[in-house]
Design a protein that fits this description.
Strands 2-1-3-4-5-10 form a six-stranded parallel sheet, with helices on both faces. Strands 6-9 form a two-stranded parallel ribbon. It has a two-stranded parallel sheet with strand order 7-12. It is an alpha/beta fold. The chain contains ten helices and twelve strands. The protein binds NADP nicotinamide-adenine-dinucleotide phosphate (NAP).
Length: 281
Amino acid sequence: MNAVILGAGGQLGRALRQEFPDAIALGRAELDVTDATAVRAQNWAGVDVVLNAAAWTAVDAAEDPAHHAAVRAANVDAVGYLAAAAEEHGFALVHISSEYVFDGTHPGPIPEDLPPSPLSVYGRSKADGDAHATGIERHWLVRTTWVVGEGSNFVRTMAGLADRGISPTVVDDQIGRPTFAADLAAGIRHLVETGAPHGTYNLTSDGEPASWADVAKAVFTARGRSADDVTPISTAEYFAGKTGIAPRPLNSVLDLSKIREAGFRPRDWRDALRSHLGGPR
Ligand SMILES: NC(=O)c1ccc[n+]([C@@H]2O[C@H](COP(=O)([O-])OP(=O)(O)OC[C@H]3O[C@@H](n4cnc5c(N)ncnc54)[C@H](OP(=O)(O)O)[C@@H]3O)[C@@H](O)[C@H]2O)c1
């Protein structure tokens, strides 16, 4: 199978390179997905599947009106260019969605077919990008949450604070599951290699849903600090008086039934966290 990875330098992009070692991996320098001419001019001959891990992911910066055009170029327009190329050249498209397309008020685990109701500029852009991806027949739209891989992420931030002796305050009313990029990439490979029916799949790490404060406590414990060094706070209190902050959904828990039925079992996030932090400090 000939695969091309886009956004290959990001957290998911790096994990996909491990999972698809024979794929052509293109970072932004090799293919800027917002450049319609470059996407059209790319040599897609013989490509079976394109794995699009490129996106604007800075959720708060996306709120700045100065960035709106760039956010939509990467998260909406680029997906349209890739979907058009997929139709023209006959490859399947894997695109990544986010639970930020929802407002977080759904009671319980969120199913794949809940209509979008984004709260933020980033969430709106992801929802509109999803519409491009699902507009073609041969797509897998993979919706995920709280990605942790090689790069900037919450776990890395908390591990750094723990190691520097800092005791943070962390929100305890946003509930979800971290998703280790390795599991996300493995699940994507499963969908592609097994030829799972096209459509939308929730794909996060598994295990008991938790708050960001719970995740921070787990990181602190793994680093030899006390869980009590993490002070819980509500989202409203944490962001009070701060500007330029994107509203966050309180419920980020995605229903994993469909991906499990497709034969993929993601790791429990607590096991994945231990393995992720297992390396040298
Ligand atoms: N991170 C999360 O918690 C999270 C949660 C839910 C869903 N997702 C989704 O998961 C996917 C992967 O996220 P991630 O965590 O791997 O993000 P990431 O680490 O920020 O990686 C995104 C990559 O996309 C690249 N990129 C941005 N604009 C590009 C462009 N115009 N052309 C080519 N490449 C471009 C970035 O390159 P530069 O470094 O040069 O900007 C970066 O390497 C995204 O679709 C994201 O929306 C992420």
